[in-house]
Amino acid sequence: MHIVYPVVVSVLLFSVGVYGVLARRNTILVLMSVELMLNAVNLNLVAFDVWLRDRLHSGQVLTLFVIVIAAAEVGLGLAIVLALFRNRRTVDIDHLRALAEPDGPAQPPPPSADGAPGASGAASTERGEGAL
What we know:
The chain contains four helices and no strands. The chain is an all-alpha fold.
């Protein structure tokens, strides 16, 4: 078997993955593109392990580690995407760039102990009631 064939397939897979990461705006599709890139790396590891006839099969062992890391990455990535969707109602990457909370209705400040709205409560912190 020539090493060129799996390497060319791996390069094509990796290129499609890079294009997906750079061009897509949907977070799920970006995660799928990262998985494509990891699978291209796995294909290279196994192909070179067979081509070099490694007795310890280091490439295949490393491929198993990459698969485990990829599974963990998918689990955490999807959990983050679901949390972002619950808070922001979108998975569009352009709308998720800002780390600040989205603009919504302004909440009035809670009333202080003396009943005046918007008071800073400095008197209570001087007495040690509000300090941690």
